[in-house]
Amino acid sequence: MPVLDALESLAELAPIGADDVRGGWSRHLLDDADRQMRAWFVRAASSLGLDVEEDANANQWATWAPAGAEGPAVATGSHLDSVPGGGPLDGPLGVVSALAAVSRLIAEGHAPAHPIRIANFAEEEGARFGVPCLGSQLLAGDIDTDRVRGLTDASGATYVDAMTAAGLDPAAIGRDASRLEDMALYLELHVEQGRQLAPLEAPVGIATSILAHGRWRVTVTGRGDHAGATELDSRRDPMLVAAATVEAARGRALAAAPPTRSRATVGKLQVVPGGSNAIASEVRLWIDARAEHDADVRVLVARIVSDAEAAARAEGCELTVAEESFSTRVEFDPELADRIGAALAPTFGEVPRIPTGAGHDAGILAAHLPTAMLFVRNPDGVSHSPHEGASDADIRAGVDALTDALRALTGDR
Ligand code: HGY
Ligand code: MN
Ligand code: MN
Q1: pTM (two decimals)
Q2: Ligand 1 within 6 A of CB of 388
Q3: Do residues 231 and 265 touch, judged by C-beta distance below 8 A?
């Protein structure tokens, strides 16, 4: 059986979903690029002799269960979708590293006491339907299925439309108790997002926690009118309210005491109708807010919204706010982290333990089973950008680390 090389796999994936307009890669749930990524997963896993399945929630799974491997699986993997114009590693690195690690364990004759199962979780970024970690949330039963069926993408297509077009049954989505119970633990490898490992001169790290975070959609309605003919004192311009909201996001996050690690971002804005010589009639914007604890995020968002409402009143605009997602603070399993740290120690010495500000499917699953994450050093710390990267040597080190961890966690028969 051939050993799968993570760097070669990333090179194979590089042409898929390359975004000529924004740069980077755009691969969104069940679009053309995502389907090619998913087809690659099936081919790569099948070439290793793994059993490949797609579950009712559009997640893909590849299982290695040689004779004698029993009980719930040790699960690993990540996601193959991306943010709009994202980097090459956020998601795919964890999937290709998992395939590479399993191929090495097969090649070395490892006899696991438990199956190893590799996941490609669907819509981790929420880039198409707005809700992150949708595949893992559905699997875990953490999200209302009627709400999910009603979600729409930018073109107005519903989640039901997307599933149906891909030959999946939207009526079947939701909690998958047997699949959840058949996982003993989940270990996700991911490119580091942020720059904590470089100063420590460490190629890999082990996650401790994830900031609480969420997304809020703000809709500001004003009155569309002529940019030249409308006197300034008679305007109801939603763009001014949007601008005040963007300022408030930064200002309120900055004003929160540093221990809350508060941050708020407006990275997406839609202007209706969007004419350069027209006062907008409506502006929609999205606030991404994160902080150490759930309550810190709630306070931060309340303050930003209060500023936005004041700006709306001053401009004579209407403002509504809808929560699209909320992910509570996650503490990863310390015992599992210790087991992984011990497995890595012979090669890597003491592996740093680091928190992260990014959300992950491992964070969703943490409420249901022991979970852990391995991070691969990102020299600049940049992610959700085409400039995201890791050195070839560190990508190889990540595969080594994941291989060592999976070997230890599945034991020898
Ligand atoms: O947005 C996030 O934190 C993640 O990368 N999905
Ligand atoms: Mn991401
Ligand atoms: Mn990710």
Answers
A1: 0.97
A2: no
A3: no
